[in-house]
Amino acid sequence: MTVEYTGGRIAHRGRHDREGRRYRHDRRGHHDHRGRVLIAAFLAAFLLAGCAGGGSGSTQEPRPAQPVLAPEVVETVAPTTAPPTRGVDVSLADIRSAPAVCGVPEHHLSGYRGHVGSTETTLQVTDGYALGMQPVEPVEVDVTGDGGLDLVGVISCTVDGAARPDSLVLYTGPATPVTSLDLGTVGREKLAVVRALRTPGGEVRVEWTGFDSPSAPGTQYEGTVEHRGGRLVIEDVRRSSGPRTIEVTDGAFMTADGNVHCTMHDDIAWCDVRTTTWTPPASPTSPPGVSGTPTPVGTPTPSAATTPSSAASGPDGAGTASPATGCEGRPYGRTFLVQAGRARQTCAGEEGPETAALGAPLTAWHRRGWDATVVIDGRRSAALTPGSTMRTSAVTCGATASVVACTDTRTQASFEVGRTVSRVSSS
What we know:
Elements: E1 4-6, E2 9-11, H1 13-54, E3 97-98, E4 107-108, E5 113-116, E6 119-123, E7 139-141, E8 150-159, E9 162-163, E10 167-172, E11 176-182, E12 191-198, E13 204-211, E14 219-228, E15 231-240, E16 245-247, E17 250-254, E18 260-265, E19 268-273, E20 332-339, E21 342-347, E22 373-376, E23 379-382, E24 389-391, E25 395-399, E26 403-408, E27 414-418, E28 422-425
Parallel strand pairs: 16-24
Antiparallel strand pairs: 1-2, 3-4, 5-6, 6-8, 7-8, 8-9, 8-10, 10-11, 12-13, 13-14, 14-15, 17-18, 18-19, 19-20, 20-21, 22-23, 24-25, 25-26, 26-27, 27-28
């Protein structure tokens, strides 16, 4: 305690002030503590009242129970790949235009002919074309790979009356012009005239003649037509012989379309045709209305008695066989025969197109890189270039791209056979 002398009296100020401050401090603390106690008591009473009211019919409505929802099931379906759409087959009758060709853009055709300025174009179908040659009919084959039949044809054109190189044109179904290929850009010559279009084994083969003027000698070419990158290209281009006459003792050949196979020996020639639009005749002993049935043993056919069993064929002296005696198990009517001065239809022989395979004894006449070839069942075979003939001492056979005609030069007995042709003449 501090004792001070002030104004003649002693004052105990320090103790009193200190106690006063402590008193005031204690009083504030007492009030704060009491407030907290009252708040706690109030909260406790409120909570107890709420619990009691909830159990004794309180007016508060109970909350409805929330249903437990099952998890949502999302069905997933694996994506499916739609089957490829098959292309539409081309319709020759619906063709009304030509693609850009001969230096003119795509243009209208009327009756397969077009006219743009001084340029005239002709799609070879039924009419003749430049230089007075016969038309080369279009071929239908799936070139684009879409499953539909496309059309590859030949367009010839003139500018101011002067011939220009032939062009190959491609149409997709039903009659859409796609692209063209000027054959004048393939060879070295100024002009090009297509001689044949064929489709052996599903590929497109083209044969054409290149020359610098109508009076100049020509060079024969052939190649495979393909569709690549939206345009036509020619692969495997090689020189071919063009029409010629081939002298043989024994020989075998195919037509350029691969549908007719022929074998020749001295005074005998026979040809087998694979597919036809005509129905083979009934064999001589067939029941009425039945055609193309095998002929029983004994039916006149080339036999060992009338046909040599072997003959020289080239330097190796390999032999050849004629159609076998009898027709058991073999079809009748698709084999045509000239023998001993007579012509007739008969049964199939024992040997087939394999005798015309390149490298076989009966194709020694074939000049690789010059004469035509055809691929059948993966086998390269010798074909007569359209317009060529093969002849022995007594029989001559001439071939177009799809038809063979054989004639005995002594009696003039003959036959003609192809996919759409079937004719026999005894004299």
